[in-house]
Design a protein that fits this description.
5-stranded antiparallel β-sheet, 4 domains, CBS-domain, 17 helices, 4-stranded mixed β-sheet, alpha+beta
Length: 445
Amino acid sequence: MEQTFSLVLADINWVPFSISLGILLILLACSALISGAEVAFFSLTPSDKESIGEDTSKSAETTLALLSTPKGLLATILIANNFINVAIILLSSQLSTTLLEGMDDRTKFFVDVIAITFILLLFGEVIPKVYAAKNGKKVALLMAVPLRIIGKTFPFNLMKKGLVQGTDVINRRIKKRVKELSQDDLSDAIELAIEGYEDKSDLDIYQGIIEFGKKDVKQIMRSRLDVDAFEFDKTYGEILALLNGDGKMTHHSRIPVYRESFDSIEGILFVKDLLPYLGEAQDFSWQGLIREPYFVPENKKIDDLLISFQERKMHMAVVVDEYGGTSGIVTLDDVLEEIVGDISDDIDEDLVYSKLDEFNYVFEGKTALIDMYKVLDIDGEIFEEAKSESDTIAGFAIEQAGKILKKNERVTFENYTFTVEAADSRKVKRIKITILPVKNEPDED
């Protein structure tokens, strides 16, 4: 076998063989560069792109131009890489045929299939892609101009356009076949998932997302009666006194400012805007720090409100009714709580209630029903099914009674009695809840 191999080497025309071998090595290097470019371009981080954008070189400009059309870039890389790999296989097959003339079939198979494939994968794919993954920016800048030239070459440009258009047609057909699910379909799917599912927290979030688009601002806003605000004519000293006191004002970072009445909102005061002026005199004109308010109607959907908050980079809006009067305020937290549930932080107020005994509790009328569930340690399902638009204890009691309850009036729901302890002509201020024993129905014989 050694003698046969020596005779083959003696018969080889070394000049053409050396040229072919050199071309093969160049093609292998090109394959490595193209393969590395594929990983490099599509693994660039936002910070990498920002850094490239600050570069004024031709390669940086070309890199950003290529990234602006990712489908065309990917098509150029795939077409070029396939052409180079096919050329490598054809040329290496020709060289192996010349070099292994007279060898047995097993040796030829090993060299043509296993050895050439291994070399092509290792040096043309694996190693360059591993390197490009760690040096994406460097490789992208290196290959930007060559890829731009390849993409503009006539045959490559024509094939690239055909490949991109073909994938667009396939994508459109796939999208047409995809059935759009309605909110009712998603709700039914979640109800099926709830059965036998112990942890309901994730499912509650999914349900909140589905119901998100159905709710309007009026359902989640904070009523004007519960909103703390500053009067426009107050002095700087009075403002600081309110903020430095022990009241609820100290817990707010944004406070509405009104002139004469709450229906005339002048703007929103950000407490942080006062920090640079803490040492100013008592007559400092703090009104110049007021920011322009954002007004939204009561019937605005909260999913649209969330988009508006994002676009305007705002966290609070003033809710107005159809006559232009102020109904209340709504914040970004109020919107997000409709998806993820109650959001609390270090400065949230503690829930105010009194536990008289095991069966009697006293709450403020504006206490949320969800907070009542926590205190009474119940799931609140019967209340949620019975309530209409009320979210507070007082609102629920008024709904059940069908009128605004006065002091000492009561209403019973299931095994709970709601007794009004304090009220005025406009609202219920304090209410006592008595838990009655559940009556067991007699067993049927």
